[in-house]
Design brief:
260 residues, alpha/beta, Rossmann fold, 5-stranded mixed sheet, 9 helices, 11 strands, 17% strand, globular, binds 2-amino-2-deoxy-6-O-phosphono-alpha-D-glucopyranose
Length: 260
């Protein structure tokens, strides 16, 4: 694992610059292992393409552990996902429940009951959002919150405009987000559900620690905005400023930096 550089940004983030996606994944997987070893509060987990190599790196790392050591680490696993699409359930390959089963629950042999997501098939969406936020609060809130970054600056599915106090709720998608996530729905933005339940910025900002992972050149424009702009509803991720423990793990492509 090659960590290129530790910096502190003017926005107050610790910035970990890594050469590429693989290095980012190894770095973040290690942070997850460290957090699991402490087992203080539930993990907050994200989905999306950015997290696929991260979860693969976690699975690979633990494959090298002895069975008792793995069982100790994973035995009291508890996690809460950021979000879920509305109108689809675990049986739909585009759902985040299916994503979690594929990338973590099945390969790690986790108890699915300990990997919590909003229920995308709930009849009353607002009631489901409330149930989910209460379940998280009852579990003690998030310890380490893993975040990806949307092209429009969303974290979870907190779409712009969004203020810092927004709680867990039902959201409507921007066209950018449906386009960004179309790959999981046969490439057709119109096939992406129109709504989701997301943890709010309030719950995300209440996490003890936040790790935002940004990789690839496509994220360079939004990462530049995040590192340079003051907090505003137009860029929901900007409300992470002011949190005392945010680490941004970014590769050189996302930072528009050439090989060192
Ligand atoms: C998605 C999810 C987030 C994810 C982000 C980035 O829409 N709601 O949890 O982190 O947007 O996605 P990706 O990693 O695919 O670029």
């Amino acid at each position: 694992m090659v960590v290129v550089d530790h910096r502190r940004t003017s926005a107050g983030f610790a910035l970990l610059v890594v050469p590429d996606t693989t290095s980012a994944a190894l770095q973040v997987a290690q942070l997850l292992v460290d957090e699991l070893q402490q087992q203080r509060q539930p993990l907050g987990l994200a989905t999306g393409r950015t997290m696929e190599p991260v979860y693969r790196a976690l699975v690979d790392e633990l494959a090298g552990w002895s069975s008792p050591a793995r069982a100790r680490l994973l035995g009291s696993w508890q996690s809460f996902n950021l979000d879920e699409y509305m109108g689809i359930g675990p049986g739909h390959p585009g759902s985040f429940a299916a994503y979690m089963a594929h990338h973590l629950v099945d390969p790690l042999g986790l108890d699915p009951a300990r990997v919590c997501l909003p229920d995308g098939l709930a009849a009353d969406l607002a009631a489901e959002a409330l149930r989910y936020s209460r379940a998280l609060a009852a579990a003690g809130g998030i310890g380490l919150q893993l975040l990806g970054l949307g092209l429009n600056g969303h974290v979870g599915f907190n779409e712009p405009p969004c203020g810092p106090e927004a709680g867990t709720r039902v959201v409507d998608f921007c066209p950018t987000t449906r386009a960004q996530n179309a790959a999981a729905f046969g490439g057709d933005p119109a096939a992406v559900p129109a709504q989701a339940i997301t943890l709010g910025l309030a719950e995300i900002r209440a996490a003890s620690r936040i790790v935002l992972v940004v990789t690839g050149a496509a994220k360079a424009p939004v990462l530049t905005r995040l590192l340079q702009e003051p907090p505003s509803p137009a860029l929901p991720a900007s409300w992470l400023q002011g949190h005392p423990a945010v680490t941004v793990v970014a590769d050189r492509a996302a930072l528009q930096e050439g090989p060192g």
